Amino acid sequence: MEYIGEHLLPGKLGHFFTVLSFVISLLATVAYFFATQNRDNDSYEGWRNIGRTSFIIHAISVWSIIGIIFYIMINQYFEYQYAWAHVSEDLPMRYIFSAFWEGQEGSFLLWMFWHVFLGLVLMKTAKSWEAPVLSTLSLIQAVISTMILGLYFYTGDAEPFKLGSSPTLLLRDVMNVPIFNNADYVSLIKGTGLNPLLQNYWMTIHPPVLFLGFASGAIPFCYAVAGLWTGRHKAFIHAVTPWALFAGSILGTGILMGGAWAYEALTFGGYWAWDPVENSSLVPWIVLVAGIHTNLVARSTGYSIKSTYLFYLLTFLLLVYSTTLTRSGILGDTSVHAFTEMGLEAQLLFFISLFTALGFGLYIAKSKTVPVLKKEEGGASKEFWMFIGSLVLFFSALLITFTTSIPVFQKTAELFGKDLNITSPIDPIEHYNKYQMWIGMFIGILAGAAQFLRWREFNWKGNQSKFMKHMIGSLVVSALFSFLAAQWINVQAWQYKILLFTSIFAVISNLDYLIFYIKGNLKAAGSAISHIGFGLMIVGTLASGLNKKFISTNPFAQKGLIEGFSDEDYQKNVLLIKNRPMFMNGYEVTYVRDSFENVTRHFEVNYKKRNEKGDVEEEFNLYPNVLFNKQGTEIAAYNPSTKRYLHKDIFTHVSSLPRSDIDQKYRKEKEDSLKYNLKEMVIGGKSEDEEFIYELINVNRKPRHLDYKPEGDDLPIGVKVKVTSKDANKEWIAEPMLVLRGMMLFSYPVIINDLGLKVKVPEEIIDRVLTSDEKLNYQEFQLKEGDRFEYKGHQIHFMSFNREPKHESYEAKEGDLAVSAVLNVITPAKSAPDRAEPVFLIRGNQPFNLKDEIEEIGLHFRFANIDPTKGTVQLMVAKEVNDNQNIPVKFAKDVPQANFIVLQAIEFPGINFFWLGATMMMIGLLMAMFHRLKTKHASA
Amino acid sequence: MKKIHIIAILMIGLAIGLLTMAADDMGTYATFQEAMEIKGKVKINGQLSKDKDIEYEPEIDPNYFSFYLKDPAGEEKKVILLAAKPQDFERSESIVLTGQMKGDEFIASEMLMKCPSKYKDEEIQIKSVSTAQVN
């Protein structure tokens, strides 16, 4: 079948570059391999140059694929599956990056993009390390390239084996639906668009940082392979440090941004949930940090070279493991944010197996050549305790990995035909906290004490008393601060008390170290700042985690109904009726108003805190919103809003809306079950029943309604009704409306929630108020500019032409010839004259005319033609008066309440300690990196 | 023997101990029948019964959401989730619940829904013009 309107070239180019990027990265691997093997002879340069050229061509290929995908996405070529699945016509351009890496293919490309970038930096800076490091990196790139190759291998009758998932596949190759029988299908389909939950600026900034972290985590691995391969173990230890520090800082920042995203923009109610996907990216970071510590030991003392190798090798393998877990769909039952499976499991398994075999194979083969110091580390040496610290970190990683991998154990057993029937812990947060808490204590103590120790116990005898002085000082000050902090944070369990103390100790002793020991020397301050950050982070975690408080609990709800559940378990949400303040946990909370903006519904929620006298001490508004799908029929996302104080946050999100607001079918059913009473009233007239008095105030031809968006040819009619309740003797105003758009009628009713009364304009109103053109008896006039004439008692004056006419249903377009006749109408019974401006328009050689009418006196005008030779116009005039008619309005009683929100509000005390501390850790790592870069240059 | 070796051995011992302890925390999937016999919280993995009532009336209790779930053994029970009804609930295929039985009902404190991929089974949308609703 010949299809029309497809753009096939970008797809072909894209496929070409994917294949090229794969093949050429293999070539780069091989060329750099031989360059490394021949590093001491003349052929080195030749091989290296081939390697360089190949890698650059690889880089260009990767950029080209990315460029092509952006091209098809920006131009919305929905014939491509990737564009179809991730963009839509109404997707704002600012989300184009998010849409790009929403899919697995895009995120693989993002990862490759950063590898390429780092590879080029290495090519420029790595000198003698270039060949072996880039050889490994190119191999990694080759393997990732296969993930997007999209090649099919047919083996007999079986399903073809799919190698990779190509981002440039055509939709008709992926899907088999009847629409592809239409040659012009391209003009008929529209994109699915970016998942509304991901339409968020975090989705724009979090993935690139995280993937830069992933990519930079590969560099220490490449260096480790290079070091083992070439046997330059000591040089390796020096060359790798800045890269490891860089990776630690960026990967950490990426993970942290994920937490910030979850906390700020999602309704998880926290920044860390020990979710398997979160854990699996944290674990490589912890191992990397362990590696950084042994790396520093090895630099200064020559101990721990082997463990540095192992930690760096493991870091990358754990990153690949994390990728495998996240992308294989294996975590589907245990994680809230894993990708769905894509059939890449075998390739991912190959990825991890290949590099495990390569890394550890090389390590086993070469470990005998790694220098090991015979002399034992001294018990009071820095290297000894730093090594212990690294082991503790590794321990932490091991425990987290074990629990995170439970679904893997289950799956593996299943492959062998055994059902272990195991899954992640019932209460994962408690499980992880229980173990990690002890790790936190160890690290807190070591992070403080080890700072004051010296390499190789240098002058321990002389140093000992100084060390003790600093320790005792820090312990005393920390104890004091811990006591104070425990007053603020409600710490119950003794384990948490110890953790609080050790964390504060880490902060205080490192402050002491920073100020009194290294005397504010910022060059060496990186570690102190990171360790202070660690301590603060744990303090923040304790404060916000232990004292997290649901504000949104209903004090009247029954408590303790169910054994084994805390009150918190079933009292997280409250119902808040509009404008009816509710008291909860010290706050007076009011749902004030809501408004629509496209598909987003914004809410304003007011918080007041009063003192004993009843005066408002503190007041603020929060604006959570609810995002609907494109059709406006279902909720796509609830977005929170947070009030930030220095010492606490108050976090709020809507967790449900009235059913009639979110369920169209239900709304229809409810609507159908309503009983409407028809009231007919003249303007100014009244009608009443037992409960209410109704009064028709006016009929409005330019009405407004919250949900109504005017379109070109609309004929809207609205009424304004006053309803008085006989009981309460109070008045309400309602302004429902009806729109005639072409042959369709759209009704915009109004609900007076306080009365449970719904008011709508029935379609009968149209015949009463609107006069259809066919019924009108137009009379024709030939007029010149300035002419006057009389029509049914009205004096009409054709004053002038207006070449820039304004008309409700006219929007100027390029190429239009539009002119209006400005008419002045004098009616004897009226003091002021009226104006009318019918429009004559030529658009694309077609004449049109847009009528104007003066409702009050029932005159209708059409500017039907223009005769340029005579300079006359043809004007049509008709009169039809609709005065003092009965206007129909419908009322229904007992409409269900639909003016509330279900709200969740949580207070997080001290959460800023967490953010401050975590950020300081990353900054400390970066500072250390710059410090190492400088000393490296100085020594070179 | 070096200090480090002693510490390493201690740590390996500790690791084995802790991992054994950690393994005790491992959850297992129970059926409703098993959940009735076990005191305390369990996890249940099942299918939403789409033909039965799904009830959430925030006007009465915003923390009470109920539906029916069929466990792998085919037994169907009423589930009460003590939270607001999540969006997209009807679309979920399989559901993982954490909670415990109380009488003939399963009281859940956590729920994880597995929704079919947003794009997989969805039909290709055809361009259309009218979106406003007609009452």
> Given the helix and strand composition of chain A, which structural class is it?
alpha+beta
- Helices of chain A, by number, come to 22
Terminal CA distance of chain B reads 85 Å
> What integer value in Å does the Rg of chain B equal?
23 Å
Number of domains of chain A: 6
**Unreliable stretches of chain B, pLDDT < 50, 5 or more residues?**
117-122, 128-135
**Main sheet characteristics of chain B:** 5 strands, mixed, barrel
- Overall SS class of chain B: alpha+beta
Main sheet attributes: strand count, strand direction, barrel closure of chain A: 6 strands, antiparallel
**Beta-strand residue percentage of chain B:** 25-35%
Description:
The complex is a heterodimer of chains A (940) and B (135). Chain A is of the alpha+beta class and 940 residues long. Chain A folds into 6 domains: 1-194, no CATH class; 221-422, no CATH class; 425-548 and 911-940, no CATH class; 567-644 and 648-661 and 899-909, no CATH class; 677-770, no CATH class; 773-881, no CATH class. Chain A has 22 helices and 33 strands. In chain A, helix 8 crosses helix 11. The two termini of chain A are 66 Å apart. Chain B has a domain at 27-114: OB fold (Dihydrolipoamide Acetyltransferase, E2P). Helix content of chain B is 21%, strand content 30%. Chain B has 2 helices and 6 strands. In chain B, strands 1-3-4-6-5 form a 5-stranded mixed beta barrel. Mean pLDDT of chain B is 80; it is low at 117-122 and 128-135. The chains are: A alpha+beta (940), B alpha+beta (135). The interface between A and B is large, with 76 and 60 residues.
Provide keyphrases for this structure.
heterodimer; A: alpha+beta; 6 domains; six-stranded antiparallel beta sheet; 21% strand; B: 135 residues; alpha+beta; OB fold (Dihydrolipoamide Acetyltransferase, E2P); five-stranded mixed β-barrel; 6 strands; 30% strand; elongated
